[in-house]
Amino acid sequence: MRKNTVACLIVYVLAAVGCKSCARGPGSSTIRDAKDLNVVVLLLDTLRADHLPFYGYITDTEPFLNTLVDKGVLFERTLSSAGATAPSVASIMTSFYPVQHGVITGFLITHHMQKDNPEIELNKLPSGPTTMAEAFKAGGYKTYLLSDNINISDEMGFAQGFDKNKTFNDKGSDKVNRILYGIWVTIYVS
């Protein structure tokens, strides 16, 4: 077990830049215009739901996530399209099942299998399906990908549709958080 839980998670951020003001006015419960929104998709891998307070765990293990849940929507029944990171994220990005998008294994497992059989090819996200990032970009948003997992990398095809992307391989939450802070400063200052 690592000292900081976030260090072992994939952090995937799609920061779509809209206006600097809040999309909801005081006392309003409706969204004025979707283009006034900033959209952040935060994807955490290998995080146990039964150890999160908003799913009933007694200890407050993730205060930041609690804040997001309090201001957002909590889905109580979800299913993954696969049991591995790369195919699951490819499905989230394309809305296709792994057999449709073709990402069946991840970067590290593929390289491990290539030691025994050099003819095995890396399953990359194909350019055919429109990704979530491409859809946002087509809608006029600026898109950023930040990942601390080699399975979610440009080499795997995941940078498709992003204006900027940066992938680390298990550098930890401190490094990722510093970069995220820089992205948010860029978004809200510019």
The counted number of beta strands is: 4
Query: Which runs of at least 5 residues are low in confidence (pLDDT < 50)?
Result: 1-32
Q: List SSEs in N-to-C order.
A: EEHHHHHEEH
Secondary-structure-based class equals: mainly alpha
Please indicate the percent range of residues in DSSP E strands (runs of 2 or more).
Answer: 5-15%
* Mean model confidence by pLDDT: 77
Shape: globular
State the end-to-end CA separation.
39 Å
> So how many helices?
6
Explain what you see.
- It is a single chain.
- By secondary structure, this protein is mainly alpha-helical.
- It is 30% helix and 6% strand.
- The protein has helices at 63-71, 85-94, 98-101, 107-116, 132-138, 173-189, and strands spanning 12-13, 42-43, 144-147, 164-167.
- A two-stranded antiparallel sheet has the order 1-2.
- The longest helix has 17 residues, at 173-189.
- It is globular, with a radius of gyration of 18 Å.
- 24% of the residues are buried.
Could you give the topology of this structure?
Layout: E1 12-13, E2 42-43, H1 63-71, H2 85-94, H3 98-101, H4 107-116, H5 132-138, E3 144-147, E4 164-167, H6 173-189
Parallel strand pairs: 3-4
Antiparallel strand pairs: 1-2
